[in-house]
Structure formats: structure tokens, C-alpha cells
Amino acid sequence: MTPDLAGGDIVLDARITTASNATFLGRIGDVRVVYKPVAGERPLWDFPGGTLAQREVGAYLLSEALGWDLVPRTWLRDGPLGTGMAQLWCEPDPEQEAITLVPADGVPGEGWCLVLRGVDEEDREVALVHEESPTLRRMALFDVVANNADRKAGHVLAMAGGHRYGVDHGLTFHVEHKLRTVLWGWAGRELDAGEGAALERVRHALDGDLGAALAGLLAAAEVSALAGRCEQLLAAGRLPGPRAGYPAIPWPPF
Q1: Are 47 and 147 in contact (CB under 8 A)?
Q2: pLDDT band at 20 (very low <50, low <70, confident <90, very high)
């Protein structure tokens, strides 16, 4: 029998200690989930307090409206530590890496994008690269639309079969420019027909069901800014590059 994901009890199995906010691995029946209680969110100077869980749900709704299945199913519900975000657990393939550091003289060619060069903690010259795949390119566009301030490499799950999921979307939908991502490999490239059609779907949906759903999760100005980003991307017809004077990559990037 399929468990009641909205109302069934969340049983906590472990705390994910690498997360910035209180994050738990649990289960509802035999379904594994990630649970992030609002009470465990750390205060931030630039995002309203107690809103990260809602932003995670908003990111899922945006992914669904785009039609790209980039964010695992995510919803708000009560839990052992109060109201929070629940998200289906997705187990990545340990044999795959969508984003990685390589020696500066070993940058792979076809099928990979160079993001930047630098030095590691041992002063070795390295390069940050990511795969050049359709799914990851869609995630890069998703980040622009969502105004994602925290697309670290570890927030991309490389799944068996080649699919990629994005997770940890609490820092999204700000009205000010906040885009920080490791997925800059397509900066300046023209949008393809499928990407343009997806943006049109989102913009249309913001005047209907998507807009109504997001109105219960985000401030009105944030929903309006989301619509504006869709319109700007459609008008420009290409993926943007890093903005001058603003940090383009989250720290740490992994």
C-alpha cells in the first residue's frame, strides 16, 4: 500500500550533518524522505526568516511547470520537529560525477565545459568543469529563472541512467539578483526552441495555477520578479553570463 506522504508519520533515521540548516533523513512508511523543519533554519541577513522551506517547494513547482523533472517531489507538511519541507530521497550513482575538479593541465575536451581555473588548498593549479549534457543545461536555465543563490556541485545529484536532480533550493526567488552557480558553461549561448517553449509555459502559468500556488509560498514581489526573469530571458534569447561586480559562484563551490 502506498503510504500517505502528506499525513503519514515521518520517522527520523539520521541527521545530515553536512547541511547548513537542520536536515534529516527519514521515512514515511517505506518511502525515504529528506525533512527540513522550519524551526531548524538558520537566520540569514538577506532572506526573510522562516521561508526556506516554502522556497524549496516553490522550486519544485517551477521545475514541474518547466516540464523538466529537475527537482525531486517536494511538499510542506508537519513533522517530528514541526512544519517543514519533505522531499523524496534520491540516491545518486557514486560512479558518476556531473561536476568536478581536475588538474589544470587535464581539462577534458568534448562533452565537458570549463567553468574556471584556480588553485586548491595545496596550491595546485586546478580547473572546475561540468558535463555538457542537456539535463544539466536545463538546470543552469532553471537556476537563472529561480534566481538560485546556492548551486553548489554537491547540490547536483548524478543519477544512474544519466538523469540529474537539483536539491537544496532554499536560497531562491529573491527579488534582487542573487544568482550564484557552478553551471556557467553555457553562458551567452542562445536558447533552443525547447527552452524558449518552457519559459513561455512558465510565464503563462504564472497568470494561472502556478501563480496561485506560489502566492501561498512567496511574497507577491517575488512572484512578480520571477515573471520578469522569464520575460527578460525570452527577450534576450540566450543564457546570461556572470554579472560584473557580483560573486558568480557560491562558496564553497563543493
Answers
A1: no
A2: confident
Contact indicator for 218, 55 with CB cutoff of 8 Å: yes
| Residue 243 binned pLDDT confidence (cut-offs 50, 70, 90) | very high
Q: What are phi and psi of 85, to 5 degrees?
A: -95, 135
pLDDT score of 57: 98
Determine the pLDDT at residue 18: 87
Q: What was the pLDDT predicted at 95?
A: 93
